[in-house]
């Protein structure tokens, strides 16, 4: 094992550009965009919001009044038609999963770079169409995995790469939240299959340990198993109020994960290696803790608690301004869609299911 | 939710007998018996060791010299023949899995009560024969699940029963250890299918979260899935150097578990409920911590760190002396053997596998 300093870190190690601004149109101004994205862009170094796109004129007006930089409140039709397109350089898509394709398509037609929320779309086929839409154009398409620029996660990845925990063997992960306490509305899109896609909890929550494991291990899913259960009435149209699923990665590690949209708030991802272990806890709900254990010593590493959305936006802008590729490009997001398709299929068939390869 | 005091606990709540002694013959005097069992019985209130049974006369002699109470060092043949049977009341079986049946059979023939290590035997069929051997006799057969008398685990069970975490939804569990660092011998029985049975890590380690979840939830496994991997040469004869497996319990909860015999030491079991969560961490390696979270408050409960083997032996002796049944009887152990059979079968077939019912 190389000597590794736990203390010397640059939380913005990916940043190469310090001048320049990417002007964003935010497509979809729901809870997430209002609570997390707008403040994050306001705090960012390389981004500004100049337009919002929403179905509600009143909401657009309210948001415009709160942020000086926003000059345009557009309807979805106006956005698709290219109204005020000169006012922004890039588009952030944060609408129900099944509408991503439409909005990414509009952005690509307008020649705008795109940061698209995960999961990339409602189904594998539609996600393939998203990638296809951007393919062969100059548009940068990135899928919004905010864990990739979270300092604790990057730190964990470096420790694993340096062999601090030996060979990774098994992973344990979980992501639970009480969705109906957070958004007390049974009619929300996350519970409607035509908008959310395959289901409610693995699509929205399970994707975090699934994808963060890929990032930590530099490995992709090969095969999956899953069990799903929906008991509460509001979840009757989706299979996975709760889910337990296992993932075999192509480095031979086995991941064992749970997700629940009706569970107490809890997030964790742990990698057990032959020589030690690394734990991210809490992991995924906008705050990330890091613990490293080896040879009987357990170290709690307090990394800088950053605004994960600010870092994600600045990383995207940095790559766009530098003309460099993004890590979580369309192909990267597609691998998760292939895994999600297999996970939901496995729950139905009860069989270990191979994950399609790009 | 009933008001629940986190502080008022009797760590020996099960104890009803304070006089009397159960004299034990220990069958199998390997690492576990020497390091943990002999000192535990020495410290116990209701037990004493009067005989040891082993294939090595030298080992028997060494152990006899260390403990005044031990009058007899017997060979397996002498034990089977009833030599010095008047010197002990009960038998503790801690030999390789595939030899439990033989020794339990001898004990039953001698009319001795039996505390048998888990898993009960190497295969489901042999475990059924163990139960059959004791069935219809006056012999008390208990399977040695030490978590059932661990104060933190009992405390966790009471909290769950009292509704402190709402409805249990998903469980996450893990049990890893570096077997070949602990016992640096590739020829050990845990790696030999004819002695260990179905495999190495779920049989020996995965059984802890599998069974402790049953105890916490008062629920039994209905269906399982699993993935297994053996990479290191020493594990070539067993399928599960590492394993990830999921369990559906009959209360609708889904458990997601990992086990590794070549991983860093780590044990945990967490129950996520609709209103809170309970975590045992560390969980299974002779020390157990308890954390309870609800409504934004996380409480670390420091229960008495007891000698888990001492408590297990005293509980067994208490029930025998009181003429009361044991919790982990043969039928209880058999349910785990049914689950283990299904878990190993599921890894081979890649299919969700129903767990046989007693």
TrEMBL record, chains A, B:
Q: Which organism is it from?
A: Halarchaeum nitratireducens
Similarity section: Belongs to the Gfo/Idh/MocA family.
Q: Which keywords describe this protein according to UniProt? A: Oxidoreductase
A Pfam match:
GFO_IDH_MocA
According to the entry, every stretch annotated as the GFO/IDH/MocA-like oxidoreductase domain falls at 153-279
The terms under GO molecular function for this entry are:
nucleotide binding; oxidoreductase activity
Protein name, please?
Glucose-fructose oxidoreductase
The chain positions of domain Gfo/Idh/MocA-like oxidoreductase N-terminal read 22-145
Write down the NCBIfam families for this protein, in alphabetical order.
Answer: XylDh_Gfo6_Halo
